[in-house]
Every structure is written in C-alpha cells, then in structure tokens.
Amino acid sequence: MASDTTSNNPLLQLVPQDTANEYYTAVLSSLKANGIEIRPDAGGGRGKGVFATKGFQQGDVLWTERPLAAVQQLDSKLEVSTCSHCFKAVGTVEQHVGGKICCLINELSDATEEDDLRQVQDRVDKIQAAVNSQFLEGLLQGRVDLPLTGEVDMAEPVKCRGGCSEEYCSSGCEAEAWERYHCLLCPVGAAEGPSSSSSSSSDDKGKGKAAAAPQHSASCSHSPAGGSSSSSGDGAGSSSSRRAQKPAVQQLHGVAVNRAKLGAFFEHADETNDIFRVAAQVIASTIITADKLLQQAAADTAEGAEAGAAYARAISAAAAGERIAARVVTPAHAAAAAAEGAGSTAAAGRDEQQEAAAAFARAAGAAQAGSTVQQVLVAAGSEQQQQQQQCLQALQAAFLPFAVGHKAAWWDVVAEQQEEAEQQEGSESDGDSDSEEVDAAELRAQLKELAADSLALLRAGLQDSRFPQLFDLQLYGSLVGMFELNNLALAVPAPVARYKDMLLHPAEYGVDMDAAAAAVQEVQPLLEALGDDADAPAEGTGFYALQSCVNHSCAPNAAATCLPSGQMVLRALTDIAAGSEVLLSYIEEEGAGLQERRAMLRDYGFVCSCERCSAEELAGALQAQQLVAA
Ligand SMILES: C[S@@+](CC[C@H](N)C(=O)[O-])C[C@H]1O[C@@H](n2cnc3c(N)ncnc32)[C@H](O)[C@@H]1O
Question: Is the ipTM of this complex over 0.90?
C-alpha cells in the first residue's frame, strides 16, 4: 500500500494510482509474469495485492525475480561467501567447508555455562577428529581438494574495481553493481577495471580453484569477506595503498563522494542495523538514475536547440525553391516535405530539408518526452526554481519503485510492535500501562536518534546539493520501515549443503554412485563435524518489486524460495484458480496456533484475518460460548 504520511517530503506523498498502475504494468512485463496482475485494493484493508488471471497448478513457477536492493547479513557473510550483487556462492566448496568450520569453532569457543556443555564438547571432539590446523589452512588456501567438489557449480570471485573487499561472481555482476550503486558507495573508490582475485586457471572442472585471499585463517580469528575490514556488504574493507592515492573527495554523478566518511557509515551500519546498508543502496541507485534522467533532459534540450538551428537552415535553403519554401512552415510540414522528398525544385536544399525533418522528429520526440519538464519550466519562476523543479521531477521518477512500497517510519513501526507486545504481556500479568508507554516512547526516540546518526554519516559520505528530499530523516525512516515490513528474507542454498546433498543423492545429480560412496567415506568426519551447520544458507534481506506486493495468509497458496543463482522464485503450493489472490506466508505458520501466529505477525505490523485465522477465531469464540453456557 502507498503511504499517506503527513510529511511534506514529496517523495513520501501518495503515488497517483495511474502512475503506480503504469509502473506495475512495466514490472509485470519485464519479469514476463504471465497470468499475474496487481490490484490496487486487495480487500479487507490490506492495500494492494497480487492476483492470478489464469489458473496455475501446484508446483508451477509464477515468476522469478531479482531484488531491487539487497544485502547479505554480516554474520552470514563470514560463513557463506557470496557475490555481493546476486548472492551466488563464490570461492570453492573447500573454502566454504573451511569457513563454516572456522565459524563453528568461534561459536563453540563463545559457549557459556548456560549452553549444554556436553553437547559443545561433543562437537569440539568431532571437529578435532575431522581437521587439524594444517588441513584447515589447506582447505581455506585452496591446497586441499575434497572429492567431487568440481561437480558443484561455483564462481571464481571477481574483486571490486574500487579496491574494497566486495567480491562478485562475474565481471558482469561487478560492473552492474558498480554502475547501479557501488560507484557511489565503495569506501575505497579507486575506479580501476575489475580484477579477478584468483590467479588460478579455469581448468579445474569449473571449480574456480582460488588462490583468492582467504576469508579465514586456520586460527579462525577470521575477518569478513576480503579479510581486511570489520565491514561487509557495500562498504566492506579497504586497500590502504589505493586509499593513499585517491583524492579525499571525488565528484561522481553530481555528488561529492567522501570515501573515508562512507567507511564510517558502513562501520556504524555493521554495528547497529544491516538495513541501513540496503537504504544506502536505494539512495545511491536513486541518485544515479535521477542524474541520468537529468543528463538526458539536458541532452534533449540541446537537441531541441540544434533542431531549431537546422530548421532555420532548412528554411533558408528552401527559399531557393519556392514550392518547398511555401510549404515548409511547421515542423510537421518539414517532416512531410522531407518524406515527399522527390519533386523538390530545390535539389541543393533537399538533404538539408531531410536533415531538418529528422531533427524535428527528434526534437518532437524529445519535447514529448520532456513535455512535463517544459511545463514545469514555464510554471516555475526563477532559473534556480526551475532547476530545483527539474531535479525533483527526476528524483521522483527515479524513486518510484520504492515510493510505491513505502510504509510508516521505522521507529513508529518498531515502537508500535513493542507497545502491542507489552500490552499483550501486560494484560496477561499485572501490567502498568504508564511505564509501557514510556518504554515505547523511549524506544521510538532511540531508534530515531540511531537513524539520524546513520543518515548524518551517509550525508557526510555523499555530499549532494540537488536532492535534499532523499537525505531527509523522515524518508530514511520510511525506507528502513519499508524494509522491515516488505523485505523477503534471502536464504540462498549454501554450496556445502549442495555438495552434501549431491553425495547423498548422486543419481539426481548424474554423479557416479561408486564415486559418491567413496567420497562420502572420505568426507564423513567433516560432515559430522559440521552437523546441521553444513546446511545453513547464505542469509540476507532483499526488496523485490513484485514479491513485495504479495499479501500474507496463514494458509498460503504460494511460496518464495531462493535458487543457488540468487534469484527468487515464486511457486504455487496448491492449485491456484484464475481470479484468486496469490498469498505467501511471512512466518513459519505450520503447526503454530492463532495467538502464536499473531505474535509472529506483529513484526509485520498487522493482525491477520485470513480464512484460517477467521475460522480459528470463530471456533475459539464458539467454544468459549459453549463453556459459558455449560
Ligand atoms: C509485503 S506488503 C504486501 C503488499 C501490501 N498490501 C501493499 O499494499 O503494499 C505487507 C503489508 O501488507 C499488509 N498485509 C499483508 N497481508 C495482510 C493480511 N493477511 N492482513 C492484513 N494486512 C496484510 C500489511 O499492511 C503488511 O504490512
């Protein structure tokens, strides 16, 4: 649902329905989501929703989608190295096994008396039986080969051209991330071409055998991806040698980028809330898109002026041939004359007329594209006002994908959740409502201050004078709030889990059974040491244009999962009839009772009244009545 906030920020105003409809039509078409529509009012006060316009069968893919903005959690990045743009795993299976063991060792060494120490000791024993420090170092450094790991599709890491510790699965992903947002967010910013972090050749059955800087050392006092910084996601790490060469502030996309200050922003985000990193990604990509729109508008205006000059030249050329000159009085006539072409007595002027016609056609197109800009220019008073209006218009267009999704401010969302939780607990115990209010109010103030600190650091890193609306605290809070409510938790299958699954089910992967059985024998101690941690996916959070429009039900008919490629796929869990709403479950609803589900859904800011909840509520009320009657 679009926001109806009371803020004066134009980016927070309700998006006109026509504009939203146009945007979603474009989204559906670009995703080739056939048989799907977005209705502005899904009913029951739930805002917009996604509906099937044709029947789907259980298991059908409804659509696949990449996020508009996403980050992997810092902790998860230590355990599963992925492409910072698309979340496909990078490195080798061996490095991932080593990384997971390091994380496990760290976790176990943090165990306290409150943990089950016998269980902890059991796991330590298993690790010691499986690896020694030399073997672990070998896994991490690419000196140890495990059997059949070449069968798992992995990508060789490509480093960020800016010199920070971000890694990508391909030069394509590196370039896309750089162009879309990372050029403004990289805390190092030495803009060289992308470089592979591995010097190895690709003759190793696609393993991407890396001599890549390991993310862990065998002592397991590991650092995040790339190894040199406490930061991850956008803004991770730095190379001090490159930092020394670059200027303190770089001008890019109309923004003065202070890389050192960006580093401080990311450190703060890593210490406080991952979501700030996603918000920064949205802000950076919006600036870049808006800047491109402004450049385009300027080019169109220049083209219009050029067209005018060409027209003037065409007029004077045509003056030599009266038949044409009499007719070429408007751009439309110029175009018609040029199309007619032959028969002109002004042979010398024909080419020029055609050029003029073409220039006019271009100018007309440009004028049409920029017509709203022109209207604004006429309406605006001073040149400065005109520029501000132009900037705002470009900004609104660039921000549209997020404007259609934004919600209440983060501090309000969280404080309301807290209030409700406390009221619930309060009504179950003796509840002092005054102190509850103070707690929620305090929380609101604390979160607002935290967001203000984060935004101040981002503003210091991205010094911008054209788009003040984008650096407004209320907008920042709304962006973070939107991510809290709309984001899909990313869970990209880890390569170690795929490796294990392949060894256990070789036939499904076309792998020789005997080879798999021998491999299982060899790696059994490692898999036992890892236990369930082998299966832990890469976890993060992403905002998706279409998935974020799907409402919740405690009896869902669809489910979203991540593929190893990092793409999200939405599949039908049941048959879905044409005209039905597509519904996901935002929570682990299976086996949970009504109150438990409602408590989980509090985080999403609504009370569910889906068919299952309504039926259970009714059944509960009837039961209560019967008890009273009895
Ligand atoms: C991911 S968005 C879904 C799209 C949303 N309807 C919109 O208009 O943007 C999640 C929000 O939709 C609303 N919503 C989703 N499922 C709901 C449900 N079962 N009952 C009430 N509100 C729901 C809540 O406001 C929730 O915060």
Answer: yes
